[in-house]
Amino acid sequence: MKKHEYTIDILRVLADGRFHSMQTIADEVQVNRTTVFHFVEILVMRGMAETFVGGAKFGGVRLLRPFIFNYIEVSNTEKQIIVSALMKTEQTPRVRDLVAKLSVG
What is the pLDDT of residue 17? Predict the structure, then answer.
């Protein structure tokens, strides 16, 4: 299995936000536990996941925030175009939140 394939599979397991043991993830993704451990280390270092040590029944890893699988990068100009278009729509609370998030940075 190629790295990008198991990476996506591990993230799919973790996407529910619950704690999962390294072994459970490894079994589901069909890779060894060490592979899962190394990937989880990267997630933790980037602030995307947390681990909990508490024995076989209580230890595990979970994502800290929802993970978006389908994303695209946009330039600042494209962000401005999107914000401008959103400003012309009905200003629901979610639209206002999205505009605020896009306007930062």
Answer: 79
Mean of all residue pLDDT scores within the chain: 81
Kindly report, residue by residue over 10-48, the tens digit of the pLDDT: 988 988 878 899 999 999 999 999 999 999 999 888 888
- Residues 36-63 as b or e (16 or more Cβ within 10 Å = b): beebbeebeeeeebeeeeeeeeeebbbb
Asked if the 3-63 domain carries CATH number 3.40.50.2000, the reply is no
Instruction: Please report, for residues 26, 34, 59, 89, 97, the alpha-carbon distance to residue 2 in angstroms, rounded to integers and kept in the order given.
Output: 15, 15, 27, 43, 38
Give this prediction's pTM: 0.57
Work out the end-to-end distance of the chain between its first and last CA atoms, rounded to an integer number of angstroms: 38
DSSP conformation letters of 62-76: EESS---SS-----H
Give the span between the Cα atoms of 14 and 81, in whole angstroms: 34
